């Protein structure tokens, strides 16, 4: 049973829990609001990422993303710009613009909101249910894991310039 509460007025209360949390690449991601909750309009994912981790440069063709840093620091590349993004900062990453980030603090916690939803389904499909104490594999990705990333990404219209 998901730890959520939704009233007739549409109010929702949700936290990170074992039903909505996934080990996704090197991140621990909790889907706080899914596309199923919003008729596909948007999703909200809480991300917990370790120092020097982050995705390869990528482009979302179908959705815009916003990032709100709760704590920690990210070095974020958006198009030709590189920004140091700190606690309390918000960044909007429009669809079609290559972007990536690397965590520059020991750990960073941030919210990703994607419009329309889809990133939540990508996390569920590519990730594995998170169990307390699980750690991401730090060694370089295997050819099989890269192939799976590319296959699942194609389904969600995400591309990787340079890969």
TrEMBL record:
Residues 48-111 form the Cupin type-2 domain. It comes from the Bacteria. InterPro entries: Cupin_2, QDO-like, RmlC-like_jellyroll, RmlC_Cupin_sf. Signal peptide: none annotated. PANTHER family: PUTATIVE (AFU_ORTHOLOGUE AFUA_8G07350)-RELATED (PTHR36440:SF1). This is Quercetin 2,3-dioxygenase. It comes from Paenibacillus sepulcri.
